[in-house]
């Protein structure tokens, strides 16, 4: 009886300690030490990791930070990373911004919601646990999640804005200060789980200055060029570890020769104030990004014509990376819309394969095509975050196989006969 009481008191004591720990540190999550990651670097037209060329088979899940805020939706983040790891995917592109909207990270200029910051901390940790790196985008040219329009509203409401026009984001001195404050806060953020500042965390593959920048009020491209130069230089003055890209769609601007501008889907794209080669040549920009949406760029064209445009668009930009920029080229968004009149799910397989084949051949030849990112992957129960390009890959077995095969091919190029990474898991 005395022994039973002793055991009972021991259990009660342990339970009390656990309860006390939970009350004090209820939002703390323990994560066992993970294999140490190293920073990905660039040298000429290629990325390198641990002395070997590094090729990316990646994807977009813009919603990760948003879904990591609340406990009920947090498992979606973990599910996505685990599924991506099983597919051999290596880098995820996601938003590290939400300005002035629902669940905003930055609720007003320089003011941040710690709850949302902790969600971003968690996204970084979960990525690292699954061997995934992150390409973090820092602001949106579009209105979704605040974007440059929100910065303009803030300046206008505070009476310091020069103009209410969206493009004043790029030239208004007050707004430039707002954005630099945001950059410094992000770069020096200390992850509450790991204690590592973002600028020192190799789980972050690279930063992207802005998603799909346009400055249509200055079609010469000078305004956007000056903004990129200033912000890229500022970011690099704080963070010397990470790679940086602009966030371009790849449209050729007025500084490009006519034969390059003819690659654009139409003449209109050269008037957007963005200039792919000129913007990407900036010294502090480490690699160039392009996007590819033939449904939006070639409305009404049959699927066969869109497939033909794949080679024209990719080959032109990889050639730029090899000969003019001498930098890696990343296709950071691509997709095929399900809203087309002639759409069939089976079309996505040859579409993805056409793109993957070009980048695989580029990797084998040691050329500038360094990787691709599907737009976008989701998990179940996320209809409100879906669009006409989103897929739940494991619900499409054939497409799942196409994506995983690309992971296997790129890993084989990187490691050759010495490749030992998770062959049984990937079933390569």
TrEMBL record:
User: Which BP terms from GO are recorded?
Assistant: polysaccharide catabolic process
Q: Which Pfam families match?
A: GH5_mannosidase
Report the residue ranges that make up the Glycoside hydrolase family domain in this protein. Answer: 38-376
Give the catalysed reaction(s), semicolon-separated.
Answer: Random hydrolysis of (1->4)-beta-D-mannosidic linkages in mannans, galactomannans and glucomannans
What is this enzyme's EC? 3.2.1.78
According to its UniProt record, this protein's enzyme class is hydrolase
Where would you find the membrane-spanning parts of this chain? none
Q: Which UniProt keywords apply?
A: Glycosidase, Hydrolase
This chain's protein is named: mannan endo-1,4-beta-mannosidase
Q: Which organism is it from?
A: Acorus calamus (Sweet flag)
């Amino acid at each position: 009886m005395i022994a039973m009481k002793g055991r009972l008191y021991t259990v009660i004591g342990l339970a009390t300690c656990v309860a006390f720990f939970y009350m004090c540190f209820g939002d703390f999550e323990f994560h066992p030490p993970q294999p140490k990651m190293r920073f990905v670097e660039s040298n000429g037209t290629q990325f390198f990791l641990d002395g070997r060329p590094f090729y990316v088979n990646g994807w977009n899940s813009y919603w990760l930070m948003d879904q990591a805020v609340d406990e009920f939706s947090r498992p979606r983040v973990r599910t996505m990373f685990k599924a991506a790891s099983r597919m051999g995917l290596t880098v995820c592109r996601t938003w590290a911004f939400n300005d002035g909207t629902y669940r905003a990270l930055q609720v007003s200029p320089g003011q941040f919601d710690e709850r949302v910051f902790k969600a971003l901390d968690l996204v970084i940790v979960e990525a690292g646990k699954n061997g995934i790196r992150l390409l973090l985008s820092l602001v949106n040219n579009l209105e979704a999640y605040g974007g440059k329009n929100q910065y303009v509203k803030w300046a206008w409401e505070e009476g310091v804005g020069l103009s209410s026009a969206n493009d004043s984001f790029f030239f208004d001195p007050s707004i430039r200060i707002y954005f630099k404050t945001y950059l410094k806060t992000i770069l020096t953020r200390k992850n509450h789980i790991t204690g590592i500042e973002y600028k020192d965390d190799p789980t972050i593959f690279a930063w992207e200055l802005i998603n799909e920048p346009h400055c249509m009020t200055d079609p010469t491209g000078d305004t956007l060029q000056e903004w990129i130069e200033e912000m890229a230089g500022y970011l690099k003055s704080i963070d010397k570890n990470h790679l940086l890209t602009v966030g371009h769609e790849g449209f050729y601007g007025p500084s490009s020769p006519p034969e390059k501008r003819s690659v654009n889907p139409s003449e209109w794209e050269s008037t957007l104030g963005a200039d792919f080669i000129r913007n990407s040549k900036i010294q502090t920009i480490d690699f160039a990004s392009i996007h590819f949406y033939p449904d939006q760029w070639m409305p009404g064209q049959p699927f066969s014509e869109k497939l033909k445009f794949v080679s024209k668009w990719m080959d032109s930009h990889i050639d730029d990376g090899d000969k003019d920029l001498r930098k890696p080229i990343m296709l950071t968004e691509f997709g095929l819309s399900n809203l087309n009149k002639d759409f069939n799910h089976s079309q996505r397989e040859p579409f993805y394969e056409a793109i993957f084949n070009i980048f695989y051949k580029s990797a084998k030849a040691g050329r500038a095509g360094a990787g691709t990112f599907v737009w976008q992957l989701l998990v179940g129960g996320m209809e409100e975050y879906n669009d006409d390009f989103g897929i739940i890959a494991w619900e499409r077995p054939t497409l799942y196989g196409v994506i995983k095969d690309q992971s296997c091919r790129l890993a084989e190029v990187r490691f050759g006969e010495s490749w030992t990474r998770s062959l049984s898991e990937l079933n390569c």
